[in-house]
Amino acid sequence: MNGLPPTPIGNPGRAAIEAVLKPAKTKDVYFVASGNGGHIFSETLAEHNRNVAKWRKIEREIRARQAAEAAAAAAAEERGALLPEGEVGLAEVGGPIPLPIRNPVR
After folding, report:
1. Are 83 and 89 in contact (CB under 8 A)?
2. CA–CA separation, 64 vs 47, rounded Å?
3. Are 72 and 90 in contact (CB under 8 A)?
4. CB atoms within 10 A of CB 51
5. Structure confidence by residue, pLDDT tens digits, 38-75
6. How far is CA 40 from CA 32, 43, 59, 76, in A?
7. Contact 71, 85 (CB under 8 A)
8. What residues form DSSP beta bridges with 72?
9. Which residue has the higher pLDDT, 52 or 36?
């Protein structure tokens, strides 16, 4: 289609096409992210604004956690302690964190 990118938005699946052809009977007009990968739908602007406020709180919590993780990683790097990928925080005693010994699969 002219004007659409060559990504999933330009190539809808069967479920998306069926949803357009046979939409659910609902009075929901607004939606916002739920914070757990889904959405929250609402019928009124007042209800929507309450849901947006909840989402903004979740966003602030996520950003605060990311900032704390970045600070912990920076402190660990400054002390020369390397964290295994995906790990967050500092070693209790200080110094490098020992990496697990892995046996290669043959």
Report:
1. yes
2. 26
3. yes
4. 20
5. 899 999 999 999 999 999 999 999 899 999 988 888 88
6. 6, 10, 15, 39
7. no
8. none
9. 52
